Amino acid sequence: MVISKAMVLDSETGEFRSVMYKGFASEVFVPYMDYRQNWYFKSFMDAGEFGLGAMALALVPLNDCPRYSYYLDGVFVYADGRPYIQPNMICIFEKYAGDIDWRHSEPPVNGFDHNQARPRITVVARMAASVGNYDYIFDWEFQMDGLIRVQVSLSGMLMVKGTPYENPNQVPSNVEMSTPLVSENVLGVVHDHFITFHLDMDIDSSNNSFVNINLVKEENLGGQSPRKSILKAKRQVAKNEEDARIKLKLYDPSEFHFINPSRFSRLGKPTGYKLVPRATAASLLDLDDPPQLRAAFTNNQVPVIGLFSIQMLFCNRSEPWAGGFLVYQSKGEDTLAVWSDRNRPIENKDIVLWYTLGFHHLPCQEDFPVMPTVSSSFDLKPVNFFESNPILGVMPNFEKDLPICWASTSQ
Ligand SMILES: [Cu+2]
Known about the structure:
One of its GO terms (molecular function) is copper ion binding. It is built from three helices and 18 strands. The protein is mostly beta strands. The protein has one domain (3-102, 116-410): Copper amine oxidase, catalytic domain (Beta-galactosidase, Chain A, domain 5, Distorted Sandwich), CATH 2.70.98.20. The structure holds copper (II) ion. Residues 154, 191, 193, 361 line the site of copper (II) ion.
């Protein structure tokens, strides 16, 4: 699923404004953590080696997507080059999950009851790829306030391994068994998932800049306040690719803004969007481990604090695949990491954000025989893009707007 030309309708001017030229999952790196014979080589590039599109199968109506979804066909290719059509490959639906878009209440004064809330209704585009044992569900969710949420969910079946033991008490003390037992005689091998997204941001036009807004602690407050420390924002425009390789750090936080340096709000601020990472994970393999050499585009995910990290690199449009063009043969000589080493200038250029979303997966009994879905996501959120809250004019829900469903016993 490729999102092309994502635009947002500016409620104030009625103008469709560009946010992203193109966005898609470029590579999925899945290294397994077993060094033994028959297992050491199991580290997959699910997009480059198998194909997320090629491995996508039809969605199951009423279960993969809501009743009222609209389904899109996919066009695939037989080995001899003939095309064929598969229905129900992508579903698009409006989502009302009972969440709040904005609200405010004040205590009643002089009989005036100020109590306002607006419902959050979004549009979701969803595709699922079944890459061998695993299922990846990709959701692109578009909010009315301009926020885009990209969510990856994992389900399907674990890649498992046999063992003579039925429970951990049977394992002799001289046998090391760090791989979790998920059922009798079945081991779930520990592994990671790294999904690298290609996000060609075009905020109001193709030429954008990347700005790192670092929050720094100021401690020397001159003794004029009981306070000992505050946070201040320090803004740094990235000049070249090296300036834009970022690792997330809980105790040295930054915001990551993509701005249009030629278009300004009425307050004189450049229009922008920011990347908002959520729960993620980083690769801990050695940099010269063969699988990690091939996936060096995840190297900048070394976690400094806990599980949080980020990689951002900027590349030319001719370089859409993070793992390189010939992934099966790759030893890491043609990846996003190599291209970014050219350290090209990126200020006020057509830049691409590459964001890697990661999961460590330590299997447990509930993951067997089919895993309950696990999700994580990141957001692209407007910053000084609109003149004020763009959804003030959204209508509230009324009784007549929603279906009324009662439990059968209450009827
Ligand atoms: Cu997993």
